[in-house]
Amino acid sequence: MLYMVSGNLLYFVLTSRYELWAFEPDFPIYPVLNEMFYTLIVFPCTALLFLHHFPERRMGRTKRYVKWIAIYAAVELLFAMTGRIVYDHGWNWYWSFAFDCMMFPMLRLHYIRAGYAYAVSAVIIVILLLWFKVPLQNVMTMDFQS
């Protein structure tokens, strides 16, 4: 659970002024509540449900991956079609689908070998930051009071 939460929080820190995607809040008065809901409730619950009684057999594991990738991809497609999620800087639903295809195996890898998962995650993060040209100087000059 913490792996997914920390990954999402890291995304928000690294892309605070250069978002690749963002949820449109249900209640515009408190957009941070929307993010907190996904970060602290949806993503940890996803991790628990995905990893609970993880199948031992290859076919069962494959079905589990396909099921959860399909759920996440379908929900995001619905959100994109209804304007509940917006994309920027070259990110789109196809990138999110590819990310889901990477995220669920990484979640399982973290469950099995956390240190290895963090090392692979660091490489993936660097590749994505470079691919989407995320300006990290924005992170270094963040003004938390505004």
What's the quick description here?
This protein is mainly α and 146 residues long. The protein has one domain.
Structure description:
Keywords: Membrane, Transmembrane, Transmembrane helix. The chain crosses the membrane at residues 36-54, 66-87, 116-134. InterPro entries: CBO0543-like. This protein is mainly α. It has one domain (2-18, 30-140). It is built from six helices and two strands; from the N terminus they run αβααβααα. It has helices at 2-14, 31-51, 58-81, 93-112, 114-131, 137-140; strands at residues 21-23, 85-87. A two-stranded antiparallel sheet has the order 1-2. Helix 4 (93-112) packs antiparallel against helix 5. It is globular, with a radius of gyration of 16 Å. It starts with a helix and ends in a 6-residue tail after the last helix. The relative contact order is 0.15. The mean pLDDT is 89.
What's the overall average pLDDT, rounded?
89
Q: In which range does the helix fraction lie?
A: 55-70%
SSE arrangement, N to C: HEHHEHHH
Q: Which residue ranges are poorly predicted, with pLDDT under 50 across at least 5 consecutive positions?
A: none
Strand order of the largest sheet: 1-2
The share of residues in extended strands comes to under 5%
The number of helical elements comes to 6
Q: Give the overall shape, derived from the CA principal axes.
A: globular
Radius of gyration: 16 Å
Number of strands: 2
Transmembrane segments: 36-54, 66-87, 116-134
Keywords: Membrane, Transmembrane, Transmembrane helix
InterPro entries: CBO0543-like (IPR048147)
